[in-house]
Every structure is written in C-alpha cells, then in structure tokens.
Amino acid sequence: MIWLTFTAIQGFRIERFFRHPPKTLPLAIVLCSTAIGYLCASFFIGFINAVSQLPGLLR
Fold first, then answer.
1. Could you tell me which of 2, 31, 28 has the C-alpha nearest to residue 15?
2. TM segments (predicted)?
3. Of 16, 28, 29, 47, whose CB is crowded by the most CB atoms within 10 A?
4. Which pTM was predicted?
5. pLDDT tens, residue by residue, 13-47
C-alpha cells in the first residue's frame, strides 16, 4: 500500500505548484505516502477481519 500511495502521489507532480520547490519535498512525499499507505493498509486489514467474522455473526 505504501508503494501504491507513493506512486499515486508522484503522479500529482507536486513540484509544479512551487516556483522553487523546497529541498525537503521528496522527504515530505515519502512521509505522506508512508502515513497514507499505513492508514489504507490498516483499513483493509480491519475490513477483511470484519468480513471474515460476518458468517459467525449470522448464525
């Protein structure tokens, strides 16, 4: 998930929004993609766990 979000964020080409992009922009992209990727992965793991518990709930 982190790799997917990193690729997606790079697709936005954020450096175009700055006249002089800060030197720490690549680091900010990596940190944002790590945070968003972790949140997405946690969501999908929780969703899969909830769906796997669903048959036991319906009995």
1. 28
2. 27-51
3. 29
4. 0.81
5. 998 999 999 999 999 999 999 999 999 999 999 99
